[in-house]
Specification:
- It comes from Castanea mollissima (Chinese chestnut).
- With about 650 residues, this protein is α+β, with helices and mostly antiparallel strands.
- The protein folds into four domains: about 100 residues, 2-Layer Sandwich (Killer Toxin P4, Chain A); about 110 residues, Killer Toxin P4, Chain A (2-Layer Sandwich), CATH 3.30.430; about 90 residues, Phosphorylase Kinase, domain 1; about 230 residues, Transferase(Phosphotransferase) domain 1 (Transferase(Phosphotransferase), domain 1, Orthogonal Bundle).
- About 35% of the residues lie in helices and about 20% in strands.
- The protein is built from 17 helices and 24 strands.
- The chain has a five-stranded antiparallel β-sheet. The chain has a five-stranded antiparallel β-sheet with strand order 6-9-10-8-7, with helices on one face.
- Helix 11 runs antiparallel to helix 13.
- The chain binds 2-acetamido-2-deoxy-beta-D-glucopyranose (NAG) (7 copies).
- The site of one 2-acetamido-2-deoxy-beta-D-glucopyranose (NAG) has 4 residues, from helix 2.
């Protein structure tokens, strides 16, 4: 988030911030749901799972914040599960968190998964068809860093290291079975900065396993998040975290005065705080109006928000390989009847695996630009991604010249099919469209911020947004995606590939792409969803007008609602539609730096109390035309910088549609 938008955020969100804190809903972190392990709906396994989840939920107010249980007698339907609440939370918070997790995991994150893990700040819930009790597991990893650097670097790494060491020692001191393996520690780094750290293991593993698990995490922190104001790493058996603000409920006695002194074990704050409400909740409830508290809350939230940069788990590397005979059988030898359509780089067929699983099989055309590199790229990226708004990759097949990707089957085809078809458009009422917009935004946010890798899709367009049976959007086609390292924000390419009409000018003209390129494409998508028209097929009496200039004209004339699709004019939310038009125009601004981040777009979509800044003139560079063509623009290094189209001469003579 850029500085000015942070300021806007601070000013306009102070009220909702207080609300967020006092509400104290569990704070979601991440989840793990290996897509190769699915159960059949309505099976015994599913009913055992439901039974397990309710048993975990109903046991969550017990002392100890940890519970493991099994349901079912023998495999294959036996299921093992546990939850662990953060060592400092009250029984009530624990109960809430476990209930939320149990619900979310089956409703949202892993509806048919045989095994899953879901993490919140306050608790973790895990289940599997294989026994995992007492077995240390750190193969599934999630880590997150605070965006900000620590300002006092002197002695920081050393102090943090010794605090972590001390915490690990105390957390692993007791070895009787079931002993709480939790410790926190705080210490002053400078007169104004206090470090808070926390370590915890699931109590089912031994002290020595816990020690190994925690030391591994502590050792990783500097690799992932060197010099940051806060960081966390979560694995199934343990977790560590530090921040420069108190993120856990500190009920312990004040820390001992001289820093190197070894504190007595204080690993049981739970016992003396059962009925105590989180101090932040008290602050929010008791003095919501006090200015200083507002400031505190804002600081807290900004830190918390930056600390919530999420990354997915690195999972065990299990094989995703399918063989060609299996896919041939599944698709009736790639018959015409099974053909679903043509994707960006090849034909797509519907298939059914022997276990009844429906799949979409994408055969990459042999002369496609997606060579072996792009192919591996897509597999590599998608295999690591899990999000309900991204299409799931089940696996791939490499056989001679054949390159094949196997995806989940998404029945309602692409959003593209709904644009420019009044019949189909009618089925997309405003609330559905609004849901689709939110889903696409969350999918992109996941790519940009929440996955361990920073991924730029680079080819977001209506035909790459698939709709499932409930019309949830799923982003597909990652052949062009690029992975950025965490702190990289821009890259230049001399091979421009993208879709005419969705490319921002800085990319089409200069080959610069960044997270903001996807934001631009998202803006175009928004306008298309609102208007029911494709950017490229837009027609009015004035041939020089395109969807963007049309939107801008109406915006300035105060007639934005004119943009709206005729088929939904009789029923829509004026506030939501206006907000979406406003966001769309912010996204397509010419200057990438002025376009909002996906993070703030989600905030804007979710809140009605946001004051949005005024959009600047959009980039009119791309005009209507062959929007479906994927472009290849080869620029040599010397030419690269000098090719600059002016807004008016957008003839794109240097661009060659394939
Ligand atoms: C599962 O059971 C529910 C309720 O009994 C039913 O509505 C649903 O159609 C069933 N699903 C399958 C796939 O059998
Ligand atoms: C706790 O779990 C057990 C089985 O694991 C179950 O029988 C019991 O109903 C659950 N609830 C409570 C409140 O103990
Ligand atoms: C819980 O885990 C322990 C091992 O840590 C195991 O001995 C015990 O049987 C488990 N409890 C249930 C109900 O499965
Ligand atoms: C758990 O499920 C997976 C996938 O169905 C299967 O391969 C594995 O054998 C199962 N494990 C047990 C102990 O049933
Ligand atoms: C944090 O420090 C690194 C180098 O240590 C620097 O590259 C980066 O820009 C800094 N980030 C912020 C937000 O100051
Ligand atoms: C933490 O403990 C490990 C092993 O006990 C030791 O190698 C390391 O130097 C310690 N780090 C600090 C900062 O005390
Ligand atoms: C940290 O500083 C605060 C006030 O500046 C002081 O009250 C506290 O005792 C200090 N803590 C430690 C561990 O030195």
């Amino acid at each position: 988030m850029s500085f000015p938008s942070k300021v806007t955020f601070v000013v306009h969100f102070s009220i909702s911030i207080l609300f967020i804190i006092s509400e104290a809903a569990p704070n979601f972190r991440s989840y793990y749901c290996p897509n190769r392990y699915n159960f059949t709906p309505n099976s015994t396994y599913q009913s055992n799972l439901n039974h397990l989840l309710s048993s975990l939920s109903s046991n969550a107010s017990r002392e100890g914040g940890f519970y493991n249980t099994t349901v079912g007698q023998n495999s294959p339907n036996q299921i093992y599960g546990l939850f662990l609440c953060r060592g400092d939370v009250t029984a009530d918070v624990c109960k809430d968190c476990v209930a939320t997790a149990a619900k979310a995991v089956v409703q949202q994150y892993c509806p048919t998964g045989i095994k899953a893990i879901i993490w919140y700040d306050e608790c973790m819930l895990r289940y599997s068809n294989e026994s995992f009790f007492s077995i240390m597991n750190d193969r599934v990893r999630y880590y997150a860093c605070n965006d900000q650097n620590i300002t006092v670097l002197d002695g920081f790494a050393q102090l943090l290291g010794s605090m972590m060491n001390d915490s690990v020692t105390r957390a692993t001191a007791a070895d009787q079975p079931g002993a709480t393996k939790f410790a926190t520690k705080e210490n002053n780094l400078s007169s104004s900065i206090t470090l808070y750290c926390l370590v915890q293991c699931t109590p089912d593993i031994s002290s020595s396993s816990c020690n190994k698990c925690l030391r591994g995490r502590v050792a990783n922190l500097p690799d992932h998040c060197s010099g940051r104001k806060g960081a966390t790493e979560l694995v199934p058996s343990c977790n560590v975290r530090y921040e420069v603000y108190p993120f856990y409920r500190n009920t312990a006695t004040p820390p001992p005065p001289p820093p190197p002194a070894i504190a007595p074990p204080d690993s049981a704050p739970r016992s003396n705080g059962k009925s105590q409400v989180s101090s932040l909740t008290v602050i929010a409830i008791v003095t919501p109006i006090a200015v200083c508290m507002v400031l505190l809350a804002m600081v807290y939230c900004l830190q918390r928000r930056s600390a919530r940069k999420k990354y997915p788990m690195e999972e065990e590397n299990e094989s995703l390989l399918f063989d060609l005979p299996t896919l041939k059988a599944a698709t009736n030898k790639f018959s015409e009847d099974n053909k679903l359509g043509k994707g960006g780089f090849g034909e797509v067929y519907k298939g059914i695996l022997p276990n009844g699983q429906e799949i979409a099989v994408k055969m990459l055309s042999k002369n496609s630009t997606q060579g072996a590199e792009e192919f591996k790229n897509e597999v590599k990226i998608l295999a690591k991604l899990q999000h309900r708004n991204l299409v799931r990759l089940f696996g791939y097949c490499l056989d001679g010249n054949e390159k094949i990707l196997v995806y989940e089957y998404v029945p309602n085809k692409s959003l593209d099919n709904f644009l420019n078809d009044p019949e189909k458009q009618r089925t997309l009422d405003w609330s559905r469209r609004y849901k689709i917009i939110g889903g696409i935004a969350r999918g992109i946010l996941y790519l940009h911020e929440d996955s361990r890798l920073r991924i730029i899709h680079r080819d977001l367009k209506a035909s790459n947004i698939l709709l499932d049976e409930d019309m949830n959007p799923k982003i597909s086609d990652f052949g062009m995606a690029r992975i950025f390292s965490n702190d990289q924000t821009q890259e230049n390419t001399f091979k421009i590939a993208g879709t005419y009409g969705y490319m921002p000018p800085e990319y089409a003209m200069q080959g610069h792409f960044s997270l903001k390129s996807d934001v631009y494409s998202f803006g175009i998508l928004l306008l298309e969803i609102l208007s029911g028209k494709k950017n490229g097929s837009f027609c009015t009496s004035d041939p020089s007008e395109n969807l963007l200039s049309h939107a801008w004209k109406h915006w300035n004339g105060g007639t934005s609602l004119e943009l709206l699709d005729l088929t939904i004019r009789d029923s829509y939310s004026r506030t939501e539609v206006n907000k979406c038009i406003h966001i769309a125009l912010l996204c397509v601004q010419e200057n990438p730096a002025q376009r909002p981040t996906m993070d703030s777009i989600i905030l804007m979509l979710n809140s009605n109390s946001v004051t949005l800044s005024s959009p600047q003139r959009p980039a009119f560079f791309l005009q209507s035309g062959t929007e479906q063509n994927v472009l290849e623009l080869e620029l040599d290094q010397s030419k690269g910088k000098s090719i600059l189209f002016s807004v008016d001469e957008a003839s794109i003579t240097e661009v060659y549609p394939r």
